[in-house]
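User: Can you predict the 3D structure for this chain?
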Amino acid sequence: MDWNNEGFRVPGFVSRPESSFSFLYNYTYDQFPATEMKQVGSIPSGQQMLPPLMGTKNCMSMYGQDPKKKRLTTEQLESLENSFQEEVKLDPERKTKLARELGLQPRQIAVWFQNRRARWKNKQLENLYDALKEEYNAVLREKQKLQQEVTALRALLKDHVTKKQISDISGEETVESTSIPSSD
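Assistant: Here is the predicted structure, written as structure tokens:
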């Protein structure tokens, strides 16, 4: 029996998928690639059976802990914030001036301003949402108050109509009793 799958290969031709993205399909993909098996005793000393893991540098950057990335100092942040308060948009001269003053790359300044504008816009949307929510709640309370008032007025009107009908009926009886001729 052949354990290395040398005699068992999937043909290289694979049917074309019916899609407009067929150019992305890998026509030479081998679903069952031949694997090389070694005997347990044939691994030279000093080599591992498993492939080596990624280096610590790659592993760190994968989790957002890249040692090359440095946070901005408080002075740099204060300067950038003050500049942002003066003008939200960043023109090229101002960008290069800030980069020189703060010892940063112009691209870092541009990215910081872009991120700060995004945070500023989100904050404005949150504030607008809160204001609209408060306004909506005030209108809702007013609507509920008016509905209660309408319900009370309808009950009062119904009570008034009922009393009027009763007085009309009793008034008709009174009129009828006075208009009956005497039998004398």
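DSSP finds four helices and no strands in the chain. The radius of gyration is 43 Å.
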